[in-house]
Known about the structure:
Elements: H1 2-15, E1 24-30, H2 41-51, E2 53-59, H3 64-71, H4 73-79, E3 82-87, H5 103-115, E4 124-129, H6 139-151, E5 154-158, H7 161-170, E6 175-178, H8 188-197, E7 201-204, H9 220-228, E8 233-234, H10 242-246, H11 248-259, H12 264-278
Parallel strand pairs: 1-2, 2-3, 3-4, 4-5, 5-6, 6-7, 7-8
Helix pairs in contact: 2-11
The structure holds zinc ion.
Amino acid sequence: MRGLVFLLAMAAALAHAAPYEGPLFDAHLHYNEEARTPYPLPEVLARMQRAGVRAIVANSRPNTGTRDLASALDATRAAGVSVVPFVRLYRNRADYNGWFADESIHAMVLDELARGTPAGPFRGIGEFHLYDSANADGPVARRLMQLAAERGLVVLAHVDDDAIDRLMAHAPAATIIWAHTGIGGTPIERVRQLLARYPKLRGELSYRPGLLAADGRLSPAWRALLSEQPERFLIGSDTWINARWDGYEALMAEYRAWLGELPPAAARRIAWENGAAMFGLMPTSLPSPDAPTR
Ligand SMILES: [Zn+2]
């Protein structure tokens, strides 16, 4: 009976957990070609600002959208958003399917890295996709992983668990943000195994199957993993289609709701600190933990 009372008390506490209210680091943001007319730059920055997003990993197809975000120094500063630019591998949709063996993409990445951006040098490569994990062994995939490790670039990869092993084999020193942490539903035990095997692997949590239970709260298995290893995870919007921009603020509110179920220090790490630390955002530029962000 006492156990039941305790469980009921726990359930009541979780039901009333306050949303996380601190800053957010959006570690998986696209500003693709088709978003730019319906969502011009002031509009996307306004959405980030209203959502309390204070920094973004920016990448786009083609790289023009990233360059626009990284060039708008006054506007991003006014919105309180730090832009961390990544080079995307896609000039167009066709590139999704062949980049891993396309020498012209390797050349394009080198060219973009050499140009840099007004917001500073590119800090990473991606997001890229591998729909067949064997393509992680393609010649350009291998060379880009090695380039990332040599230059300290972070890799944002939408791949399955097998491809994580393959990509890490090319460049064990590389840092990979695993987009969606297994969008096909990689079993959580396998996620734990990969995190243990690769200390520089991080998981981004958009679209992660099983993260939330049917009631919209964190599933017990994911609550346990995120509470135990909060230093390994980040959140992201994945604005891959315009509908994600439509729902940007609602999505961030959803993140705030489940982050609020975690111990506060864990929530803050996943929401903000891991991204800020990864890219060296100055602590002095951070809002204080208690400052309202919205
Ligand atoms: Zn994406």
